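Now for one record:
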Amino acid sequence: MKKLTMVTGLLTAAALTAALAGCSAGSGDAGDAKTIRVAYQTTATFNQMQTLMETAKSQYEAAHPGMTVELVPIQAEGADYYTKLALMNKSASTAPDVQYEDTFKIQSDAAAGYLLPLDDYLAKWSDWSQFADGAKQAGLGPDGKTYGVSLGTDTRGLWYNKEIFAKAGISVPWQPKTWADVLSAAEKVKAADPDVIPMNVYSGKTAGEAASMQGLEMLLYGTEDTLYDISSKKWVVGSQGFKDSLKFVSDVYQGGLGPSLQQALDPNIFTSVTADWLPKGKLAIALDGSWQSAAWVDGGTAPWPAWSDTLGIAAMPTQNGQAPGTTSMSGGWTLAIGKNTKNADAAWDFLSTAVNKDNATSYDINNSQIAVRADVAQSSEYLDANPSFETFSSFVDTTHFRPATEDYDKISNQIQVAMEAVMTGQSSVDDAAAAYDQAVIGIVGQDNTQQG
């Protein structure tokens, strides 16, 4: 689930399809067995995929004379990237051979027939034994087959500015024990310096999946309730935890503890947080991901040499400090092979090149990812590369993963609708929660829900 700015306005489907088709001009016909088309995401503050893809292209072409890798970077954020990738996949003439695939999209994209199962290749690939079980499960489709190979995973927590905290009289290192402790710190910051944004929690439809995962789910999974009951395979409705999570969002935005609504609903909020608010001391607490420092390190898109001295990292506490005390959410991205590829063997050779040990090490370091290969996670090169890796890796012990179902994407959209309703004051918590419950029932059916 990345992370950063959404492009303003969506291209029409016709214009977008034409634009994507134009990407291949001069590089051979679409589906050419001698050309591997690779589609992936880039953004204003996320260029690590470009580096990885260029490296893998060079390595693959050197090892496979006569083959060409056509790189198709898609400059887009969040939902815009998913939309553009889906439009590419709707036509065999534009469909990629290899694509950068968010783990939460694998189920729906596999069901839609966009992806090729990889099990036969994985069974013969010795590197597969290096991947963590959780990373393997993240690539499973609705039929139990594997459709994606993980590049890395992530966790989420609370980034906080130690200098702002000192002015507000908050001692560091800071580790809140409850939600009330988090809100209390935000209140102290507000009282000490009204020009500083006390806290950012992504919320609303503009923030897309970041609102659902870094926002509400980071809260909900710290309550006594859950979003989806894995044992019964039913979606949970009517839960107090969902209401309490919405109340937290309301407290932040309606209580003047967050960005203004104009700032929060700006498509550029991700870039604002990463490249402006945190580096320039405009934001005290950010509920955000382990990847943030990728922009600040030497060679990043927004270099900030003092980031590791200025910022602290705290685990997100459970609602009332109940066991296990802290919570996190994990996701991550994979590389997948398109169902329409005319040369699956070549596509696999490129994919396995891109995720080999050396490339995975470089990517995980450059993108501040939690390593999913054991040989990378245990290497001194990785462990010594970034002072935040050890802390964010420790959050894996109490992390959660989004429901791996075909319906998740639609449910996530309804989470964002509910969040926006309460953050803007257009709806009460109870009404927003009730509307969400009805929407979920409409999506999955009454029989596939249960009361919280």
Remarks:
- The chain has 20 helices and 15 strands.
- The CA atoms of residues 108 and 406 lie 5 Å apart.
